[in-house]
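Exam revision sheet. Question 4 asks you to relate a sequence to its structure. Input first:
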Amino acid sequence: MNILLVDGERLFREGLISLLKDHAEYLIAGEAGSVVEAIELAQKTEPDLVLMDYLLPDGTCVDVMSFVNLSKMKPKIVILTSEDKDDYLFTAIRAGAHGYLLKNQTKSNLLASIKALERGEFAISRTMFARVMGEFSKINHPQPYGEMALEKLTRRERDVLSELATNASNREIASHLVISENTVKNHIHSILEKLGIKKRAEVVKFARRYSLLIQTATKNSDND
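Answer key, structure tokens:
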């Protein structure tokens, strides 16, 4: 896994590099100290994972994610920050972050969170997860959004939904799931009908907000 590190503090970046270099499965794609540097390096290195602070000298993580979301890149983005604020947490998740971690956690917890990402889970503590779900449950939607809606989907449709969360094309989804493009189209049509959504862009937004989070919640409940 190629990892891009983005943090305004050089000393912290060096600490992360030292930690990750002890694990052969992780390669450092590069390190950046600002939004501008992060975007430039992301374009050059096309990382699998971006570990990024929320606040940067010339902006925030959202500035980087806005660029990534409009590009063809599909990295997972995890916020690693000292900012334990609901506004930052909710904003990052809405922008498409795959996790939100605090810098005061242990090395073993950080590595475990990265491993969880590789399994398709969401990198977030149970406490923060509860806060996010509490916030999102307040949102009123005309469509049957949320966990009850996801229960209508088959396992394969949920797999497709998770792929849609990354803005993957039908061809990319077919390749990842080892199915035909026609099968992907059929699954997406079924998902739209079951969720009461009319446009692909809306289901992508739905997938980003809920699918990975709810999958993680299901896995967490299985482990309790």
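Marking note for examiners. The chain has a mean pLDDT of 85.
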